[in-house]
Specification:
Elements (H helix, E strand, L loop, with lengths): L2 H15 L1 H35 L7 E5 L19 H8 L4 E16 L2 E10 L3 H5 L3 E4 L4 H5 L4 E4 L1 H8 L8 E4 L2 E9 L4 E2 L2 E2 L3 E5 H7 L7 E6 L3 H15 L10 E4 L1 H44 L1 H9 L4 H39 L11 H27 L3 H6 L2
Parallel strand pairs: 3-10, 5-7
Antiparallel strand pairs: 1-11, 1-12, 2-3, 2-6, 2-11, 4-7, 5-10, 6-7, 8-9
Helix pairs in contact: 1-11, 2-9, 2-11, 2-12, 3-8, 9-11, 9-12, 11-12
Length: 405
C-alpha cells in the first residue's frame, strides 16, 4: 500500500478518535510550548543583561572586594570588604588612570517639600557618570573638593528629582537623606536601567560624606578608566593593591578586577546552565505526553483488532500494518508539535509584553534551538512511543484477529 494511502487511513482513524486524539496530544503541546517559552525567555533575558553590561564603556575596569575564586559566589553582601581609602589614593595619583570612581551603595529615603522617595544612595564622584553613561540635565556635579571637604551636596537621578520637585528645578534646594540635610547641585537626565539597576532612582553624594553618614571605612568597588592597554592596566592595578594589602602571592588576592568581557562570560555560563535545567524539566512533560500517546495507541490497536485481521486476510502486509500505526502515532505528535510551537511563540510574546510593563529594554526573542528541539523531539516521541503499539498491531494473527470480539 502506498504511503499516501496509509496517511489517508491514519487521518480517518484519528478523526474517528475525536476527543481521545485531542487529549492524547495535549501533553506534547504543553511540553513543546513550555520548552520554547522557557528557552526564549531565557535567551531574551540573556540579551537584556548583556546589553546592560555593554552600556558601560568597554575600557572600564571594576576593582571589587573578594578573591577571583569568589566571583560567582553570592550574595556579595557577605564578601569581606577590603578596599580602603589608601587603595583609592594610590590609584588616583596614577597617570595611566583617566578617572577612578569609588563606589558605596545604600538604600534610604529622600525627603523634600513634604514628598518622600525611596532611593539608592551612591557615594562616589563624577567618574560614575562615565560608568553609567548618563549626563547632567541641570546644574553641576559635585567636585573632588566637595569630597575632600565632606560637604553635604547631592545630585538627584532624573526620576527622584521629578517625584520630589515635579517640573520645578531642584538645583539649590535642600533634601533630607538619612537624617542629614543636603543641598542639590545637579539633576541627571533620564537614563533608564544600567547594570540591571534603574539609575534614575539614584542619588549621588560625595564618597567621603557617604562614609560619614553610614559609618563606613571600606569601599564596595572602584570603577577605573585607564588610558593604556587593558591588560597592562589590570596588571598595574593588581600590583598596587597587592602592595597596599601586603600580598606577595597572587593566590592570596582578596580582591578581583572584572571587565565587561568577564561579566558577559558569567552571564553566558549562568543562563546556559539555567536553560539546560529548565528545558530538561519542561522535557519531562514531553516524555509523559509520549507515554500517553503510546497508551492510546495500544488501546487503538486492541479496538481495531478485527479491522487488522480483515486487512491481513485481504493481503495487507505486516510492514503496511506497522507503518500505518506508526504514521498515526507520528501524525499525532506532529500535530502536537505544530500546535505546541505556535502556542509557545504566542506565550513568549505575551510574556515579553508583561515584562515590558515593569522593565524596559527587553526584546521579543524566539529561541530557534527551542523550536528545533520541540519539533524534532515531538517527531522522535511519535516514532519511539509509537513503535511498540505498531509492532503489536503488525504481529496480530489474521485468524485470531477475525475471531476477536
Amino acid at each position: 500500500m502506498k504511503t499516501s494511502d496509509l496517511i489517508e487511513l491514519s487521518i480517518q482513524s484519528l478523526k474517528r478518535g475525536g476527543v481521545r486524539s485531542v487529549l492524547s496530544v495535549l501533553g506534547i503541546v504543553i511540553g513543546i510550548a513550555s520548552v520554547i517559552l522557557i528557552l526564549s525567555i531565557t535567551e531574551a533575558g540573556k540579551s537584556f543583561i548583556i546589553s546592560q553590561v555593554q552600556s558601560a564603556g568597554s575600557d572600564l575596569l571594576f576593582l571589587e572586594n573578594g578573591s577571583p575564586s569568589e566571583v560567582q559566589k553570592t550574595p556579595d553582601a557577605f564578601t569581606k570588604q577590603v578596599l580602603t581609602d589608601q587603595d583609592y589614593r594610590s590609584l588616583k595619583k596614577q597617570t595611566w588612570i583617566t578617572s577612578i570612581a569609588p563606589v558605596n551603595v545604600d538604600m534610604d529615603s529622600v525627603t523634600a517639600q513634604g514628598q518622600v522617595v525611596n532611593g539608592t544612595v551612591v557615594g562616589t564622584n563624577e567618574g560614575i557618570t562615565k560608568a553609567f553613561n548618563i549626563n547632567i540635565a541641570q546644574g553641576v556635579f559635585f567636585s573632588e573638593d566637595d569630597a575632600v571637604s565632606h560637604r553635604r551636596t547631592v545630585v538627584l537621578g532624573g526620576s527622584v528629582a521629578k517625584k520630589l520637585f515635579g517640573s520645578d528645578s531642584a538645583v539649590g534646594h535642600m533634601v533630607d537623606i538619612g537624617g542629614q540635610k543636603f543641598r542639590v547641585t545637579a539633576t541627571m537626565q533620564i537614563a533608564g536601567t544600567r547594570f540591571l539597576q534603574n539609575v534614575d532612582d539614584f542619588v549621588y553624594i560625595p564618597y567621603t560624606t557617604e562614609m560619614d553618614v553610614y559609618a563606613k571605612t571600606r569601599y564596595m568597588e572602584f570603577i577605573i578608566q585607564p588610558n593604556i592597554a587593558r591588560n597592562e592596566a589590570i596588571d598595574r592595578a593588581k600590583a598596587i593593591v597587592r602592595d597596599n594589602h601586603k600580598i606577595s602571592d597572587p593566590k592570596d588576592d582578596d580582591f578581583r578586577i572584572m571587565t565587561q568581557e568577564d561579566a558577559v562570560k558569567i552571564v553566558d555560563q549562568v543562563t546556559g546552565s539555567l536553560s539546560i535545567f529548565l528545558a530538561a524539566v519542561a522535557g519531562i512533560s514531553l516524555v509523559v505526553g509520549g507515554i500517553g500517546i503510546m497508551n492510546i495507541m495500544f488501546v487503538t490497536v486492541t479496538e481495531r483488532t478485527k479491522e487488522i485481521g480483515i486487512r491481513k486476510s485481504l493481503g495487507a502486509r505486516t510492514g503496511s500494518i506497522m507503518r500505518q500505526f506508526l504514521i498515526e502515532s507520528v501524525f499525532l505528535t506532529t500535530i502536537g508539535g505544530v500546535i505546541g510551537t505556535s502556542l509557545g511563540v504566542l506565550l513568549t510574546w505575551i510574556a515579553i509584553q508583561i515584562i515590558l510593563q515593569y522593565q524596559t529594554g527587553w526584546v521579543f526573542t524566539l529561541s530557534t534551538t527551542g523550536i528545533a528541539l520541540g519539533v524534532g523531539f515531538s517527531t522522535a516521541v511519535g516514532i519511539i512511543f509509537g513503535y511498540a503499539p505498531a509492532k503489536r498491531a503488525a504481529s496480530v494473527s489474521p485468524i485470531e484477529a477475525l475471531r476477536y470480539e
